[in-house]
Design brief:
β2 and β3 form a beta hairpin. The chain has one domain: Alpha-Beta Plaits, CATH 3.30.70. It has a 4-stranded antiparallel β-sheet with strand order 2-3-1-4. It has 2 helices and 4 strands; from the N terminus they run βαββαβ. By secondary structure, the protein is of the alpha+beta class.
């Protein structure tokens, strides 16, 4: 199976969406390398970045599920690093 490294950028505009976001991220925790969250209190939003190493289909699935949550926006940046995973 081939995997790619990607960065998923997430903007949380509605605080109540965080619970659902964490549930979705927990489903994919086997692939997540790391996570960083920054509260931007002046704008009442949260900025989250997720580093992931997963098959293309898994990255797309995670991004799609996150993007369908109300009050959340997401974008993915893919690296050109593709590796075989045992």
């Amino acid at each position: 199976m081939e995997t790619r490294v990607a960065l998923i950028g997430i903007i949380v505009e509605k605080e109540e969406a965080v619970i659902n976001l964490n549930e979705v991220l927990h489903e994919f925790d086997d692939y997540i390398i790391g996570r960083m969250g920054i509260p931007y209190r002046e704008k009442s939003i949260n900025i989250i970045s997720i580093a992931i190493d997963a098959p293309q289909t898994v990255i797309s699935s995670l991004s799609g599920k996150i993007g369908n949550l109300p009050g959340i926006s997401t974008k993915v940046a893919y690296s050109n690093v593709i590796t075989k995973r045992p």
